[in-house]
Amino acid sequence: MAVYAGALASGRLRHFTICLEDYEERLPISRHALFCAGHRRCTFPSDHENSLKKFQTDHIDLHYIHCAEPIVRIEKTIAAMAELINRGLLTGSFHNVVDVSDCHYTPASIWTTSPRSSSSPTSSLCLARGTMLRPASAPLPISTPFLLSAVTPRATHHQSHGTFSLPTHDSSPSPPPPSPVSWPSSADQARAKDLEQEVLLLNKRVDVLEWNTREDHQQIQKLQDELNNKEVNLSAAERQVSAKETALEKAEGGE
């Protein structure tokens, strides 16, 4: 929450709502209009109206859906948010733990945008749509979030490590970009990391479908087959990386 409070204090974000769907009560977090809205996705429009009254404002800059509600598909939530955006009541939306295939985005990991930037349209797609990728760590997202509508043509893209420097509203210098030391150093490692993420997402998808008995069993089976194929490809990619690392070690030892 400190990250969001800092964004509010700096003037980059005026209001936002965070949706923790396992909360049963509404709790004010601070006097800066932070608000913990515990509600089901099916009641999103009415709860958004309540948040507007709580904030005493005519719109909210960002609505952050933190936890998934398996009963209601993410497409319905996004559609409800889009309607509020069209009405001018919401500027942008943020979704955590969302299946990539559901959102119809390129299944690219934030950690692999650097080595794949020359061949992947991810960065240019973000610039075109005014969005940003958000790195996260399991089980809870503790990394700095990137807000929707934050990327503009004035933002500087650092191709060496796949990040953006955003234009600031003051004269203070921008923070230095992160060191590329921790990023994948080869295309093979990037591909293995990508496949590992896809396997993780498919596992989550299967778990949700098994929990929700209303889903079609054929869809579960289809995802399971896809998951098996991804796991085979991941094993092959990991073997390829291991073989190249072994060959590199032998070459260095020969020198």
Automatic annotation (TrEMBL):
Compositionally biased residues, Polar residues: 161-170
Signal sequence coordinates: none
Region entry Disordered, spans: 158-190, 234-255
Organism annotation: Bondarzewia mesenterica
InterPro entries: NAD(P)_OxRdtase_dom_sf, NADP_OxRdtase_dom
Protein name in UniProt: NADP-dependent oxidoreductase domain-containing protein
Gene3D superfamilies: NADP-dependent oxidoreductase domain (3.20.20.100)
Biased composition annotated in UniProt, kind: Basic and acidic residues: 246-255
Residue stretches making up the NADP-dependent oxidoreductase domain: 47-90
